[in-house]
Amino acid sequence: xxxxxxxxxxxxxxxxxxxxxxxxxxxxxxxxxxxxxxxxxxxxxxxxxxxxxxxxxxxxxxxxxxxxxxxxxxxxxxxxxxxxxxxxxxxxxxxxxxxxxxxxxxxxxxxxxxxxxxxxxxxxxxxxxxxxxxxxxxxxxxxxxxxxxxxxxxxxxxxxxxxxxxxxxxxxxxxxxxxxxxxxxxxxxxxxxxxxxxxxxxxxxxxxxxxxxxxxxxxxxxxxxxxxxxxxxxxxxxxxxxxxxxxxxxxxxxxxx
Length: 257
Ligand SMILES: [Zn+2]
Known about the structure:
The protein is of the alpha/beta class. It has helices at 2-13, 75-84, 95-100, 102-110, 130-149, 170-178, 198-212, 224-239, and strands spanning 34-38, 45-46, 61-67, 90-93, 114-117, 160-161, 182-184, 188-189, 215-220, 243-249.
């Protein structure tokens, strides 16, 4: 059993080994500064928008996260921009979208990103029965992991989860902690659920990042305005001295060494 898990983890995180390499074709790339292992035992919930604590990040360190994909019209543009800058992000997948666009989810994995979970169909879970809410969470995890790794499992290979609409409750948070699944909130978000031009979107998120200084940034890779501004956004981060931190599950790096 342990061997199977180790092999699966190694397959999921092989691109990590490339972190120290230069960024091909882009000498001024933002790049990924460092890898941070995240463990539910020490940080079960992260993101100051809803929780008292966040990841142990230094000044000007950012973790980039994208929700609700994969989405064929927009996710490839986000991936192209991240690849051009050699930046690794975390995608919180929707099971129904992963099912429909499995190749795109596998591209995210192949390009070194971390794939977390975001339910199957994006219902708000806080008002449901615990059993129904957990079934929805598990259906998402199973769909994601089957599409990406070819393994149908309810205990996720990458135990990172974000609640749709941040709608959680104590019982659900307790369950996630019992299952050693890290619940990701955010420290700053792009409000990209509101329609605006890519320029407005870029200015809004850069201003908000400047205010918080560091933290987990939330985007939606399903949004046209977001996909359009990500190349400029990454260049601006580099210009202003920000550093990108790539989050992985606890133990994922050790598998490689
Ligand atoms: Zn969402």
